[in-house]
From TrEMBL:
<dbReference type="Pfam" id="PF13560">
    <property type="entry name" value="HTH_31"/>
</dbReference>
<dbReference type="InterPro" id="IPR010982">
    <property type="entry name" value="Lambda_DNA-bd_dom_sf"/>
</dbReference>
<dbReference type="Pfam" id="PF17765">
    <property type="entry name" value="MLTR_LBD"/>
</dbReference>
<feature type="domain" description="HTH cro/C1-type">
    <location>
        <begin position="17"/>
        <end position="89"/>
    </location>
</feature>
<dbReference type="InterPro" id="IPR041413">
    <property type="entry name" value="MLTR_LBD"/>
</dbReference>
<protein>
    <submittedName>
        <fullName>Helix-turn-helix domain-containing protein</fullName>
    </submittedName>
</protein>
<feature type="region of interest" description="Disordered">
    <location>
        <begin position="25"/>
        <end position="44"/>
    </location>
</feature>
<dbReference type="InterPro" id="IPR001387">
    <property type="entry name" value="Cro/C1-type_HTH"/>
</dbReference>
Amino acid sequence: MSEPSTPSSREAELGAFLRAHRERLTPADVGLPPGRRRRTPGLRREEVAQLAGLSATWVTWLEQGRPVSMSARALTSLALALRLSRAEHAYLFALAGRPAPRDDAEPAVPPALLASVHAIAGPAYLLDRQWNALAWNAAAANLFVGWLDPASTERNLMRAMFLSPALQALVEDWPHRAARLVAEFRVHSLRHAEDPPTRALVEGLRAESAAFRTAWASQDVEERQGGRRGFHHPTRGLLAFEQLTMVPPAAPGLMLGMLLPAA
């Protein structure tokens, strides 16, 4: 078993990471004039410091692997100056030994992700942070009576699960599935539990549904997993599917659900 990284090695890695990303940028990339001839590629440390509103000495020390304590705001400014991606931004915070930054804005839905929902042959749907359905295909509308069918007006999965008699009749072993759904939602919504939309959803369901209130009070947590899902469809009879759930890397606040015919 390898030895855990020491602070000095992590600081050296942080310095190498910052230096590599600084050298990838040109003045034109960040709206700066080219200036005098450059002996090394990329931006100068002084330019990065200017863009981030930081001391050039701090930027130099960070790249040299010296122990410099940086606030979350300063790290974010540095990430913006270096044009870091979402993953690179999170990695920068990890190297600096700080919690990953929260992204309070609703994630944008990539057009390709929306198109994929309709390209899937079986029932498929896309949920936001509060499990409101953002998109679904015709197969999902046909299956999910009481939620995604044209006659229903409630598009939030949690509210439909506990307040729609039609969806409760559709879902096989509803008491178990409903309680499991609450445990899964508790995990999925953890990062956004204090956001007003999430709090309003939970408090509203606690007030309107005794079953939800009991399930929420149990404090159970479960990872969102696939597996067999049975449905008592009012016109098609008993149906069985294998559920797959994915969190798209390009929109980590969203969740894509797919149902494939069970073998």
